[in-house]
Amino acid sequence: MTPTFSLVVNHAPWARERLATALYLFAESIGYAKAALLHDTDYRDGGPSAKCRPVLFTVNQWNWSAQQRVTHHVFMTDDLDLAPGFWKILEAMVMAAPEDVIGLLSNHPESPRLLQEGWHWYRTNSWVVGPCYVVPHVAMVDLADWAERRWPAETWDKLGWADDSELNHWVSTRGRKQALHPLPTPIEHKREISTWGHTGHGDDFSHERVSWRESGAVLAGIAGLAVGYWLDKGGPQDPQESPMMGLP
Description:
Radius of gyration: 17 Å
CATH topology: Spore Coat Polysaccharide Biosynthesis Protein SpsA, Chain A
Number of domains: 1
Mean pLDDT: 83
Largest sheet: 7 strands, mixed
Number of helices: 9
Number of strands: 9
Strand content: 15-25%
Order of helices and strands: EHEHEEHEHEEHHEEHHH
Low-confidence stretches: 196-203
Strand order of the largest sheet: 2-1-3-7-5-8-6
Distance between the termini: 37 Å
């Protein structure tokens, strides 16, 4: 079955320098995403944080996605560079692993070694980070319902969790107990653009370890666009046989 996609681009509306990237991400999705949402609500309530109301930020985008009639749901932040042919690559990935949550940042420090050893994936339980992830539809419906019911609504403004941390909790407790991460990753995170009031973005783990740009020869070839690159059933490229990585 050919996968179909919805897309949410999370845009910080007060960071005007990021609008061009958000529009670029939308333009790249034309012809691939059946439904797309520019999630540009300002949740700060006058505070300095980009996600002063993180529960509402999360629930709104997940509920919208769960209502879309597609096979997979893609979530991006407005500070990414995409590999040429990104959506074809993503299509091949989800055909190889249709039931798994995929965290595209691939930020584990051992990623360069794993790729050098011939692995095209690794697994975690669970270490998805926010810049870009993919959730299958059946998982998305349960995830959205679970997230909205997990805490009483009157407590939401007091909670500090974000979408990636709740997704990881769901994967570990209700999902498949694993998330997949591609090697190399077809995205790059522009950490120099910040919405948190300081230089850079996130921590030492909020960036890719082996990007498409560094491994252009891999993704530029036919194999990079084909399901065969991401699925070698029973072999070293089988996503379900890839190494399960713990904390570094």
